[in-house]
Odorant receptor (Rhyacophila nubila), 485 residues
Amino acid sequence: MVKIESRRKGRTTKSERKRLFEFQKKLTKYVGIGMFKITENGDYDNFPHRRYRIYSLAIVTLILFLFIALEVVELFRDASDFERLTFQMSLIPSQILNIIKTLSMMYYHKKITNLITILEKSATDIYVSSFHIIKTDKNCLFLSKLYTVILVMCVLYFATPSLQTIYSKNTYFYDNKTITSVLIKNRLPVSTYSPFKINDEFTFCIMLFYQMFTLIYQSFIVCTNDCFAASILMHISCQFITVQLMMKNIHRNAIYYLRSKRLEKNSYEHTDRSGRMKLNYFDFDKTKFAFYVSNITDEKLLEECRFIINNRNTSFSEFSSDEISESMEIFLIDAVKLLEMTIECMKEFEYIFRHGFFGQIITSVIVICLSFYPLVGMKDADCIKLVGGSLMMMVFMPQLALVTWNCTNITIEAEKVATAAFCCPWYEANAKFRKTLTIAVSSAQRPQIIKACSGLIPLSNETFIDLVTRSYSAFAIVMSFKKQL
């Protein structure tokens, strides 16, 4: 006996779907971007706050550009000390990339809002598997929070020498008579040019607060961009999984749809199949097949549904082949519509983030090459800077791997759609259904690959491995030339 409840626990409702990207939306508010609210008419709400967010983001962007300018000035002032400035040289490209990503998200604000709205609405669609939606959202939330905590901890680690200096101020600022401004400046998280001399505790704390604010803010920018991109990619992959379930269970769903229509004619009046009785697509929970009927309040109708489900293994001879074919065609059209919508979402995502991903690839190559230098080239390296370079490489490599892994997962799940379409009993359907299925399979067989820089670089696991290996090869060549000189 299969237990049927009037409401399945864990099913995504209209109120729950708004929490699918809740944490990611909070991150956008923290960095000054925020998300639009779309009203029922399709208009964009929240325009009064738009101007305020633009002004706040412009001010913070100017502060970040000032911070980068001070780093560049310091880099040219001490260009001979290459070993000490290696960490700073790897930090500048990443900071510029963060600003470009933020401005890009602000420019494509409406497109991102439309994309998220489509994914949120599909979470409450009658045919979307609730299990995959909830599991995907939990993975996105866990990944976003973990990524945020790791980046903030890295920033706090870079501030360890500065906090140690403030804690031991009596012996560092006052007892040491040979103290210089350069010596104190080297205790800051990042070596930057200072327009005034840092020779006391007050000026040191001002520079420390300024650097910590910019570094923590930039870490939130990284989390916002990467977590948003990863969450959207994971939900797009979930949509392809849903299409597979719809294709595999077309015949069984058509039978249950016809039985539900018979119930509607005999017992109660229902407008259509998306009215009072809502049928979820089926999920395979381990080895037990579970079918759920939701939003059924009438006990008599619920008992009739229990009888139908518990006798689901009976023969289907009660319906003619034409009726089954027509019903299967309805579900096939719904699956094709969801497939086309998912492909459009993927193309829209590729268009929005194409420049950011290209900059991410270039920056990752630069950071990996410069991060290898403290590990190999330095002889008397500072322990903080040495570990800092390792952390930079450990942050940027997962940052790129997060995108390439999700893009590869989308490609794999999209390829399975055509196989799932062949699994349906098309041989029992009429010629019209077979023709429609042929068109759907030909569309599903096209490889769905997300590319960066206007389709030049495919984002996949192979691309990530090639970037890491070639970056290390370029670093090894540079080190060999340096040893010869």
About this structure: The chain has one domain: 14-252+323-484. Residues 172 and 390 are 28 Å apart (CA to CA).
